[in-house]
């Protein structure tokens, strides 16, 4: 990073190191992640991680815009991508354009991401031809959890050929990158080797052109369930638990606030 301007879809494609990406939903988390990341993704996973939903299907465009604005405000280095939520783009290319244009205009994000392969190729082409950079999302598609039959690894048997076709279709349609989620490693590797655009893996392959994780997962802050592909690089849940317990104890013992925190008393007592 030059320190002068934010990553763009174009500059992400010219990196000579893997694209470093995390999800971010809030300004303070974006501020902490931004110096280290090339791409911040405002994922619709926020429905589960921040709002306690049991799938991403209830996430709305308004939620994505509010959190997208928060992440754009908290970042200056990384390119910001915002997920189009379930029901906001699948009906037609026109519906997708209207949603994506509103998301881009109201947040200042650099691109959008949408789930789907062959069936979304026409839509991806419609958006990219009209000035909206798109990241595809293939393999496990959480918005299709009910047709997938749960959150599971995909790419076995006949699925492998379908996912390979999806990868080719989103690339041909003009996506500048594609997320591959929860897909057997050899398939994710083969897709990465075949495509001219960067693949961004989550539960995919070290060969991918980049990696993404849900921030709260890798920080050990969201522990409801943890798929095998998550590595905990931190254990914030433990630290939050300890801090809150210490606070509760201090309040109950009347140790907080002390003179230090009280205006009108001498400090340092
Ligand atoms: O919503 C999300 O967080 C995502 C990433 C995990 C790729 O789509
Ligand atoms: Na998502």
TrEMBL record:
Subcellular location: Cytoplasm
GO cellular component, one term: cytoplasm
Pathway membership: Cofactor biosynthesis; (R)-pantothenate biosynthesis; (R)-pantoate from 3-methyl-2-oxobutanoate: step 1/2
Chain sites annotated for binding 3-methyl-2-oxobutanoate: 44-45, 83, 113
The keyword Metal-binding appears for this protein: yes
InterPro entries: Pantoate_hydroxy_MeTrfase, Pyrv/PenolPyrv_kinase-like_dom, Pyrv_kinase-like_dom_sf
GO MF, one annotated term: magnesium ion binding
Broad class of where this protein is predominantly found: cytoplasm
Pfam families on file: Pantoate_transf
Domain of life: Bacteria
Cofactor needs: Mg(2+)
E.C. number(s) listed in UniProt: 2.1.2.11
Cofactor annotation remark: Binds 1 Mg(2+) ion per subunit.
Family listed: Belongs to the PanB family.
Described function: Catalyzes the reversible reaction in which hydroxymethyl group from 5,10-methylenetetrahydrofolate is transferred onto alpha-ketoisovalerate to form ketopantoate.
Assembly information from the UniProt record: Homodecamer; pentamer of dimers.
HAMAP family listed in its UniProt record: PanB
Protein's recorded name: 3-methyl-2-oxobutanoate hydroxymethyltransferase
């Amino acid at each position: 990073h030059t320190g002068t301007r934010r990553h763009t879809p174009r500059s992400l494609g010219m990196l000579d190191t893997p694209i470093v990406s995390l999800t971010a939903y809030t300004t303070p988390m974006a501020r902490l992640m931004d110096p280290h990341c090339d791409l911040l993704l405002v994922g619709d996973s926020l429905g589960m991680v921040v709002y306690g939903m049991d799938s991403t299907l209830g996430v709305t465009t308004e939620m994505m815009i509010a959190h997208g604005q928060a992440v754009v405000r908290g970042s200056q280095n990384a390119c910001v991508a915002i997920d189009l939520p379930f029901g906001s783009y699948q009906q037609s290319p026109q519906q997708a354009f209207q949603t994506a244009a509103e998301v881009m205009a109201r947040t200042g994000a650099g691109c959008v991401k949408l789930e789907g392969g062959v069936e979304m190729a026409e839509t991806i082409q419609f958006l990219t031809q009209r000035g909206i950079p798109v990241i595809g999302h293939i393999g496990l598609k959480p918005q299709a959890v009910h047709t997938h039959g749960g959150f599971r690894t995909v790419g076995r048997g006949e699925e492998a050929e379908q996912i390979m076709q999806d990868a080719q279709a989103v690339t041909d349609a003009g996506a500048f990158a594609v997320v591959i989620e929860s897909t057997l490693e050899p398939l994710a590797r083969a897709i990465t080797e075949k495509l001219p655009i960067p693949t961004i893996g989550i539960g995919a392959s070290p060969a991918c052109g980049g990696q993404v994780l849900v921030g709260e997962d890798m920080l050990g802050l969201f522990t409801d369930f943890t798929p095998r592909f998550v590595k905990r690089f931190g254990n914030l849940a433990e630290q939050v638990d300890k801090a809150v317990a210490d606070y509760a104890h201090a309040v109950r013992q009347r140790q907080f606030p002390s003179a230090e925190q009280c205006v009108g008393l001498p400090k340092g007592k």
